[in-house]
Amino acid sequence: MAQPNECNDIHNCRLLFDIVWGCLATIFFAKRPSATASLRDRAAWWLAECNRTLSQRLKLMAVALVAPELIVGFAAKQLIIARLFSREYDMSLTHGFFLVMGGFSDADGHPIVTRSQLSVANVVEGIRAIDVEKIEEKSKGDLLSKTITLCQASWFIVQCIARRAQSLPLTELEVATLAFSTVNALTWLLWLWKPLDVQSPIGLTVQTKPQGHVGDRPYPFGTTWLIRFGCMLTGIFVADDYDPFSNSSVPTFWCAAESFEDHFSNQTATAVVIQFLLGSVFGGIHCAAWALVFPSMVEMWLWRASALVITGLPIIFLVVGMIPERVYFIPLSASWPTALDIFAVSMILFYSVARGILLVLPFTTLRSLPIAAFVDINWSVYIPHL
């Protein structure tokens, strides 16, 4: 009879392909059009994916791979603003999300995202008159696809717990996927009522641009990459940096925060704290691979060091964020950046290198896995016997 750490029976074992496919499918599970969509709608959806929203999706994917906790913070802030929109203007949460995403545009094609635009006569009424079904049709996303995605992540987490309960080792790839699944599951919960994306805004017949308004160059012209990163990190855009009347869409990580400055400050601070704490949780899950078998000592210590970096740096960022501005906002000289700029860039580089290592190592370690890693879970032990 085969021992728990042996793999002599093909029916009780899994292949390397099964391990890799299960992990990649969990991380990159794609949302597709509704099953009831026509062939023409599906073709249009794929064309839109390849053109109008490709750049935005690539940005989100890149950030999700390097720092998925930023996506959680972004999702939390979007949910906060969407709720504020829906409650203040008596509309559904789906309408609120679509507003935050720039899904409604005025007669001139400018996104409607500020209070001043919503205060124009007939704007709120026009938005309320749009059915939720029409918004979902425009975004090509439905609750079923999101539920399936959430179930996929939850099922993977259950499998990892079951393997440890049966003293079966996880692979480094599975540990990394478990970290992504935990963070992504929370993201999907926050975005449960959010339309998939804005492939084509819903236009109103009302003009919201004030007379005599002189617009600036479209965002992000005139802003440095450090400022744009700060906007992505906090979800707060300075009002002067983004003018909806000079743009036809909203920035990828836009949260319309300046529209609700009096309501949003405390809530966004909470969202940022949660974001960084989840970053530590994400790194802490990688530390679960501390005692796993690695093909070499170099890979083992690279993994351990990188896991410690991505676990500790978010906490350091939080602590530094509590330091009074006058302490760190002092430039070394007139031509040098501030001490905070130097610190932020250094920490970002360290974090990015560590995340890069933890993206590569899960695949390099697949070349030499212990035999017990191929033993499948014995689900029969969880089935009651009469």
Quote the average pLDDT: 75
Specify the overall morphology: globular
Strand percent estimate: under 5%
Largest sheet: 2 strands, parallel
Uncertain runs with pLDDT below 50, 5 residues or more? 30-37, 44-52, 326-335
Number of helices: 15
Tell me the series of helices and strands, N- to C-terminal: HHHHHEHHHHHEHHHHH
Helical residue percent band: 55-70%
Number of domains: 1
Structural class, judged by helices and strands? mainly alpha
How many extended strands?
Answer: 2
Keywords: Membrane, Transmembrane, Transmembrane helix
Structure description:
With about 375 residues, the protein is mainly α. The chain has one domain (about 10-380). The protein has 15 helices and two strands. The protein has helices spanning about 15-25, 40-50, 55-65, 70-90, 95-100, 115-120, 125-130, 130-140, 145-165, 170-190, 225-235, 260-285, 295-320, 325-330, 340-365, and strands spanning about 105, 200-205. It is globular. The relative contact order is 0.15. Keywords: Membrane, Transmembrane, Transmembrane helix.
